[in-house]
Design a protein that fits this description.
The chain is elongated, with a radius of gyration of 26 Å. By secondary structure, it is of the alpha/beta class. The termini are far apart. It has three domains: about 60 residues, no CATH class; about 90 residues, Nucleotidyltransferase, domain 5; about 40 residues. The longest helix is centred in the last third of the chain and has 23 residues. Helix content is about 45%, strand content about 15%.
Length: about 200
């Protein structure tokens, strides 16, 4: 400590203030994270804590990826993905023409997708012509609220699945009820046979 100047900190071009690694190391770690490897494996290679690697990777992604407002898109695809073996879900929004991930949200509620649309902006929302999604009502409500007049396209897997639940099952159950007692066992286990 200098009695006249106090503590003086020199700014170094090769590292950010208060970080324990250089910009060059951060760039190397971020590049390693782009390979198909776990954070733990990258951390082991560079003798860093995995949380440090995660922080470096997150910072690099934030710098590389544009914000939704900077990425106009005509065709969007919205889907949920499972986190921790189906106990928790996230939402992803994709530019279906690019194809590129535009945004990832932490759960699969209507408010989650509305958060994307607020970042995407009114101008970009008005330019959306179609949104592909599964038959999840909260997603549909968010699209209808923010992208007025946009076509909603359901993916074939969910259409067939809904058809199986809502049509084939009802017919199978009603036919089972109508069948003579000795034939009722024939209808058991036929759901997937009837769908094929």
């Amino acid at each position: 400590d200098c009695p006249e100047c106090g503590v003086v900190t020199e700014k170094l071009a090769f590292c950010e203030p208060r970080l324990t690694y250089t910009k060059r190391l951060a760039a190397e770690v971020a590049l390693s994270c782009r390979e198909i490897r776990s954070l733990k494996a990258v951390a082991g290679e560079y003798a860093l804590d995995w949380k440090t690697v995660k922080e470096i990777d997150k910072q690099a992604l934030e710098e590389e990826l544009p914000t939704p407002a900077e990425t106009p898109a005509r065709l969007l695809a919205v889907d949920e993905f499972s986190i921790k073996k189906r106990h928790k879900y996230g939402t992803t929004v994709i530019d279906a023409e690019a194809p590129a991930v535009l945004w990832v949200g932490k759960d699969r509620r209507q408010e989650t997708l509305e958060e994307f649309f607020s970042l995407f902006g009114e101008k970009n929302c008005s330019g959306v012509e179609a949104v592909a999604m599964d038959m999840w009502d909260p997603y549909e409500a968010a699209v209808r609220k923010h992208c007025y007049g946009t076509e909603i396209v359901y993916d074939p897997f969910h259409i067939i699945s809904a058809y199986g639940r809502e049509v084939v099952d009802k017919v199978r159950v009603s036919e089972t009820k109508r069948a003579q007692e000795k034939y009722k066992d024939l209808y058991k286990g036929t759901r997937y046979i009837l769908l094929s």
